[in-house]
Specification:
The protein contains 13 helices and four strands.
Length: 351
């Protein structure tokens, strides 16, 4: 009960802190005249990924590499399957041409690069620096593109000028403080739960911690979808996934003593699943430049199957192997064939 209490307290602090950080940073960006898509891909995406930064860095410094890695891998999987799926169920999402041409393919490439860097069983200092450099380059690219599409400052964000900006800065500072405290409580609670339940820290990181730190993305994307801010809804997920892999995992690998160890289990299953999920985005985004409700339902169903497999495998349940084989040899190939066929038909139509 004590472990669950610390986990819950940390989760509440992370959600509130991320909400304050995102709200303050978004107001500052909009006041500066930054386009909504750029806000979604950078300010909102990075802000909602702040819990992942706090948790993974704290876990790496504490020697809990499985939680640091599982948090990032699980969050990226959750962002696409659960969060993007629920957002599309709330309202079909329009996908901008920039995301289809640039951002989604970059997430696929950096996902593959992460697997390649981790193939020797760890993400060391040099690997972390490479990932951090990519985060800086991506942010610079987004700022350059945002500068070309600069908009007039939003009146409701600037208000009278000073007071509104000051409030936004205070929100950012308070949000960061809550994130630091919440990450400490959540990691400590997660480690105790893993020990008490007899499951690995990797599974806890892939499920409870990953979903918990992804709650800001969930709230932000669903609310943005319902309010018609579709660029922010999709950009938040795509930008968060890129940021998680480069800045979050890069920071954890850089500050952790000996880097972040990568288990054979993660290399065999969890990292390939993350890459496959990133690949699924390409045909879904390309077909009609929208994410339809049926596609959102498909993504949510896949997440349910993924979590079910993780939990069954953690308990060494007899049905885990059967579920894994069904997903690997039946469900995934059929889905790939359907989405590939739809993408090919769309490509021919545009020609």
């Amino acid at each position: 009960m004590v472990a669950a209490g610390w986990l819950g307290l940390g989760l509440v602090a992370l959600v509130i802190g991320a909400e304050m950080l995102v709200r303050g940073a978004s107001r500052l960006a909009l006041a500066a005249g930054v386009a909504p898509l750029a806000v979604g891909l950078t300010v909102v995406a990075y802000g909602t990924s702040a819990p992942e930064v706090a948790v993974s860095v704290k876990a790496a410094l504490s020697g809990q590499a499985d939680i640091a890695l599982g948090n990032v891998v699980g969050s990226n999987t959750c962002n696409v399957l659960l969060i993007l799926g629920l957002s599309a169920l709330a309202a079909p999402l329009a996908v901008s041409a920039q995301i289809v041409r640039i951002d989604a393919p970059l997430v696929v490439l950096v996902s593959g690069l992460t697997v390649a860097l981790a193939w020797d069983g760890s993400l060391g200092l040099s690997d972390g620096l490479v990932l951090l450099a990519l985060a800086v380059a991506y942010t610079a690219m987004q700022l350059v593109m945002a500068g070309r599409e600069r908009q007039a400052p939003a009146a409701d964000a600037t208000g009278e000028g000073g007071p509104s900006v000051l409030r936004s800065c205070l929100l950012v500072a308070a949000g960061l403080a809550l994130l630091v405290a919440g990450s400490r409580w959540m990691v400590d609670g997660a480690v105790r739960l893993a020990e008490g339940w007899g499951v690995s820290q990797l599974v806890i990181g892939l499920t409870i911690v990953a979903v918990g730190t992804s709650l800001p993305e969930l709230v932000t994307s669903v609310v943005a979808s319902l309010r018609g801010q579709r660029d922010i809804a999709v950009g938040n997920v795509v930008g968060s996934n890129f940021f998680n892999l480069t800045a979050v995992l890069g920071a954890a690998a850089t500050v952790g003593q000996g880097g972040v160890a990568v288990t054979d289990e993660a290399l065999r299953f969890d990292l390939p699943v993350m890459v496959a999920v990133a690949l699924v985005c390409l045909p879904i985004f390309f077909t009609g430049m929208t994410i339809a409700r049926w596609e959102g339902a498909l993504l949510v169903a896949y997440y349910g199957a993924y979590v079910a497999y993780l939990l069954l495998a953690a308990q060494r349940h007899a049905s885990a192997a059967a579920l894994g084989d069904a997903l690997r040899w039946f469900v995934v190939p059929i889905t790939a064939a359907v989405l590939g066929g739809l993408a090919l038909a769309e490509w021919r139509r545009r020609r």
